[in-house]
Amino acid sequence: MPSVMLRKREDGKLLFYVAKKDLEETIESIEFDRPDKWGGEVVLGDGSRYYFDLLDAPPKIPITLQAKRL
């Protein structure tokens, strides 16, 4: 599972960055993006999909998390 960094762009969209692969993409959708549940399947701008373990609340950005490629 790669470590990925999430940060916000100036327009408010989330960026997904994997350093070892030099991959930086905009997150297009997150399966759960609610005040009481955050994470699940994430779809990137290039169509690739990753999975974050569910959190009880949205994380404070920037943050580094473990992601599983689907």
Oligomer: single chain
- Taking pLDDT < 50 over at least 5 consecutive residues as the criterion, the unreliable ranges are none
Helix content: under 10%
Strand/helix succession: EEEEEEE
Sheet/helix structural class: mainly beta
Strand content: over 45%
Q: Which helices and strands, and how do they pair?
A:
Elements: E1 3-8, E2 14-18, E3 23-34, E4 37-44, E5 49-55, E6 63-66, E7 68-69
Antiparallel strand pairs: 1-2, 1-6, 2-3, 3-4, 4-5, 5-7
List the main descriptive attributes of the protein structure presented here.
70 residues; mainly beta; 7-stranded antiparallel sheet; 0% helix
Folded structure, characterized:
0% of the residues lie in helices and 63% in strands. It is an all-beta fold and 70 residues long. Strand 2 (14-18) and strand 3 form a beta hairpin. The protein is globular and about 30 Å long.
Structure summarized in a few sentences:
This protein is mainly β and 70 residues long. The chain is built from no helices and seven strands.
